[in-house]
Each structure stands twice: as structure tokens, then as C-alpha cells.
Write a structure and sequence with these properties.
Elements: E1 18-19, H1 21-25, E2 33-37, E3 54-55, H2 76-85, E4 93-97, H3 105-114, E5 120-123, H4 126-132, E6 159-160, H5 162-169, E7 174-178, H6 182-186, E8 205-206, H7 223-234, E9 239-243, H8 250-259, E10 266-268, H9 271-275
Parallel strand pairs: 1-5, 2-3, 2-4, 4-5, 6-10, 7-8, 7-9, 9-10
Helix pairs in contact: 3-8
């Protein structure tokens, strides 16, 4: 039996990867659209939300808490179960946002993409941008979603583990970009997780995620500026791995690379929370 097409007002090939408030407002509440709040930390369980949005809880069920590392990608079966509970179907159009503007929503986007789902978009501006545009918010608890039929189809190439990163650091065709602040990269600032060593992966390049965003942190820079910053940071190398403190802001870089046409940026899940542990014995570097 042939599956029915998505509603005519939702793109059959999926949404653009980055959508604005007006794009979402024009489609809000229509069949096939799922809006998910991926806020973490202070933005988790925000008192207001975009109407109908459900929680993509990166601090809760959408991370693997059996791992000693923060925000570890869940096993495919676990992620599939949680996304079905959020009402996500294989043919849904999913829009992800967070309360900071651009911070943790790209992590949720990357998780979906790593599981073979390409019908997801990040809301540029997040909840602050939505409110600044004059669109309504809700304090009501969203209704329970009908179970979806989302099927996880993992793409291992989008996920880099410690061994893959070690190989990438010695590969002249691969750039490893670090999204943390330059002060953390050089070791001049302490890590927020005090058990971690200072510094960075030897051979990696500093590209703080803030340099890809507007000064208020709510929006990505225009594509020409993103492309210029990424070209400089990668020195033209065709393959890309991104890293950060725990694998969240690394996805801001990976998403930017995707926007500029990079085919398959990989994210180091665990990032410095893994590499920087003293017990690993892995090499580290400080300074520029």
C-alpha cells in the first residue's frame, strides 16, 4: 500500500534546515507538523512554550544516563521509543527550538539526522525570536501525542567516538573544530567540570560557536559569513569533525556546516568530557 503524501502545506521533501518564526507560524497546528522544545539547563521546562510544543528533553530521557558522560546519544531503540512517544512519524515535519535562541536545538536536530531522519528544522531565533515576532505562547501543558511510527535508521558516519577522533587528528584531509571558548581551548580558563584537564585535542582548531551567531546568540549569521568562517577554520579540508564540552555546542558547528553544503559533518559525542578525563591518558595541548 502506498503511503499517503504529507499535507500540501508541508514540504514533501522536508523543510529547509533553518526556518524563521513566520514560516512556523504559517503552519502551526497543521497535520504532520511536530514542534519540540529542546531547551536544556535554565531553559528546560520553560514556563511558556510555542503552542502545542512538547519537550525534547536532552537533560532527561533524550540522553543516555547509563553513560558517565553528559548528553550521550541514546541507543537507537531508546531514541526511537522516545520520539514515537512525542508523536513523531517517519513522515512528520519536525521543528526544534530552544529558549536561548540557538543553543541546544541543533543538538536535537543532529540526533534526528544521526538516526536517519531528514525532515527536521531548527527555528532560527528560538523562543525569544518567536516572541519578538509577536507570535503567541502558551502556558498550557500540551496534550499527549498519539504514538508515532518513527523508525531509527542510524548513520554511523555522523557520530565520532574517541578512536575516530584520534584518527581524524592525524588525517590531513580532516579538520577537527572545537566549539568551546578560546579561553577553554587554550587552557587559560578552567573547565566547568572540575575533574577535566585543561586544554584541547592536539591538532584541533578553535572555532567558538558564538562566532557563528549574532551577538545576542539568537540567530545564525548569514550564509556568506558562515561559509567564510568555516572555510578559514577548516583550511579547505573536505572532512569535518566537531567537538565541544559535552557534544551540545559541537552541533551548532555541525549544523552551520550543513547549512553551507558540507555533506556529512560528524560530531564527537562525549567531546572534552570524554577526552579530557585524566584516566584516559590521551594527549592534550594548551595554548594556541
Amino acid at each position: 500500500m502506498t503511503a499517503p503524501p504529507p499535507p500540501a502545506d508541508l514540504p514533501p521533501s522536508g523543510p529547509p534546515p533553518l526556518v524563521g518564526p513566520s514560516w512556523l507560524a504559517a503552519r502551526l497546528g497543521r497535520p504532520g507538523l511536530v514542534v519540540l522544545d529542546a531547551g536544556i539547563g535554565a531553559h528546560r521546562h520553560a514556563p511558556v512554550r510555542i503552542p502545542g510544543a512538547r519537550a525534547f528533553d536532552l537533560d532527561g530521557a533524550l540522553s543516555d544516563h547509563a553513560s558517565p558522560l553528559p548528553h550521550t546519544l541514546p541507543a537507537p531503540a531508546d531514541l526511537q521509543r522516545e520520539l514515537r512517544a512525542l508523536g513523531v512519524d517517519d513522515r512528520s515535519t519536525v521543528v526544534l527550538y530552544d529558549g536561548a535562541g540557538i543553543y541546544s536545538a541543533p543538538r536535537a536536530w543532529w540526533m534526528l539526522r544521526a538516526m536517519g531522519f531528514d525532515r527536521a528544522a531548527v527555528l532560527d531565533g528560538g523562543l525569544p525570536g518567536w516572541q519578538a515576532a509577536g507570535h503567541p505562547v502558551s502556558t498550557d501543558r500540551p496534550a499527549a501525542a498519539p504514538a508515532g511510527d518513527f523508525t531509527a535508521r542510524p548513520r554511523p558516519a555522523l557520530l565520532a567516538d574517541r578512536d575516530a577522533v584520534a584518527a581524524a587528528l592525524t588525517d590531513p584531509a580532516t579538520a577537527v573544530l572545537d566549539a568551546r571558548s578560546r579561553e577553554r581551548f587554550t587552557g587559560a580558563a578552567p573547565e566547568p567540570r572540575p575533574h577535566l584537564r585543561p586544554g584541547h585535542l592536539p591538532g584541533s582548531t578553535s572555532l567558538p560557536f558564538t562566532e557563528l551567531l549574532t551577538p545576542d546568540g539568537r540567530h545564525y549569521l548569514p550564509l556568506p559569513a558562515l561559509r567564510a568562517r568555516l572555510t578559514t577554520a577548516t583550511a579547505g579540508r573536505p572532512h569535518l569533525v566537531t567537538t565541544c564540552g559535552s557534544g551540545v555546542t559541537a552541533c551548532i558547528l555541525a549544523f552551520a556546516a550543513h547549512l553551507t553544503g558540507h555533506p556529512s559533518p560528524a560530531v564527537y559525542d562525549g567531546s572534552w568530557s570524554d577526552w579530557g578525563r585524566p584516566e584516559t591518558g590521551l594527549p592534550t595541548a594548551t595554548g594556541d
